[in-house]
Amino acid sequence: MSLTTETLKMAKISGMGYEEAANAMTVAIRAFKIEMTDAQQVTDTYSALAAKFAVSSAEIANAMEKTASSAANVGMSLQSTSAFMSVMIQTTRESAQNIGSALKSIISRYGEMKASPSTLLNVDGEEVAFNKVDTALKSVGISIKDASGQFRDFDDVIMELAAKWDSLDNNTQRYIATVMAGNRQQSRFIALVSNYDELNRAMNVASSSENASIVQVAKTMDSLESKTNQLRNAFDQLYLDLHLEEGLKGAYDWLTRIVSTIGKLGMLKGVLPTLMTAINAGFGVKGLINMGIDKYKQRRTDL
Q1: What's the CA gap between 202 and 87, in Å, rounded?
Q2: Read out DSSP for 209-275?
Q3: With contact defined as beta carbons under 8 Å apart, do 54 and 10 qualify?
Q4: pLDDT-based confidence at 296, cuts 50/70/90?
Q5: What does the pLDDT read at residue 113?
Q6: What confidence tier does 48 reach under pLDDT thresholds 50, 70, 90?
Q7: What is the pTM of this model?
Q8: Contact 271, 260 (CB under 8 A)
Q9: Of 270 and 260, which is predicted with more confidence?
Q10: C-alpha dihedral (35, 107, 74, 37), degrees to nearest 10
Q11: In Å, what is the CA distance from 74 to each residue of 105, 111, 159, 167?
């Protein structure tokens, strides 16, 4: 029930169809091993980032479908992955699918190194060597492994690199970007690490996003009510501009006199249901009269 509720919320907030929202929710929950009863953290994270950055909940969800499993494999969380993608989409203004695929490619290089650090690897047609990446990062004071010799989580490495990025010269930046992301994803990698303030803000927004989806749903409903009121006001104005009021009053008076006349003739019992049926079916006044007269004639014949 919790998962269903959150899926409906995601669909409402993002404008996605229910099936699409369900797929997006399933991807996030399975990749990051989130309990179904904690599904709100998915909608909260997406909603909070969409409210603060130039990205929509749907864009984050679509990009996440490309990236989630790879991100979880290198120690990233739902929140950090969402934050990274939000900054990349905002900075590059590329489609969510492109950014999701790009981040997946960058992460996969790190994941392959983590799985086989002593092997020369090939990822997306480009060579990946742990020694090259390790040497490049060590040149700016960053280590891939922790004190116990284990690979650090990818997002921790990226945040440390982003904090130092502006202090590096252009050649060093290009060198690290190429080694870390490859030639194809170099520019997108730079978009991720070149604005530490925005990246850090996104991480903070994602990590403190509790109940953000509830607020966003309320705003969405307020917006829907506002649009409904605008439509109602437009119809009211059209009604006044076309001077329909007097015409409708005359039609109602005419119909009232007919019903009253029929009632006086004692035929109301048989005619009124037909009149109400015609009204509900949307017939015009002339149709109402004709149907009433036909019913009256039939009644007289029966008598």
Answers
A1: 7
A2: -TTHHHHHHHHHHHHHHHHHHHHHHHHHHHHHHTTHHHHHHHHHHHHHHHHHHHHHTT-HHHHHHHH
A3: no
A4: very low
A5: 86
A6: very high
A7: 0.70
A8: no
A9: 260
A10: -10
A11: 12, 6, 14, 27
Smallest CA-to-CA distance from 110 within 199, 206, 198, 189 is with 189
> In b/e form, how buried is each residue of 31-49, taking b as 16+ CB within 10 angstroms?
bbebeeeebbbbbbbbbbb
Q: 255 burial class (0-12, 13-18, 19+ CB within 10 angstroms)? A: middle
Measure the CA–CA gap between 139 and 1, rounded to whole angstroms.
51
Residue 115's contacts (CB-CB under 8 Å, 6 or more residues apart) are none
Least confident among 82-91, 146-155, 217-226: 217-226
Contact 174, 186 (CB under 8 A): yes
Residue type (1 letter), 211: N
The three-point CA angle 225-46-12 to 5° equals 30
- DSSP, collapsed to helix, strand or coil, labels residue 126 as strand
Most confident of 9-13, 211-215, 222-226, 272-276: 9-13
Q: Name 123's bridge partners.
A: 126
* Packing angle of the helix pair 78-92, 170-193 (nearest 10 deg): 110
One-letter identity of residue 79: Q
For residue 30, pLDDT over 80 is answered with yes
Rounded Cα distance, 83 and 206, in Å: 6
pLDDT at 291 over 60: no
What three-state secondary structure class fits 140?
coil
Model pLDDT for residues 233-263, shown as the tens digit of each residue:
666 666 556 665 666 667 777 777 876 776 6
Residue with tokens 């015409």: 247
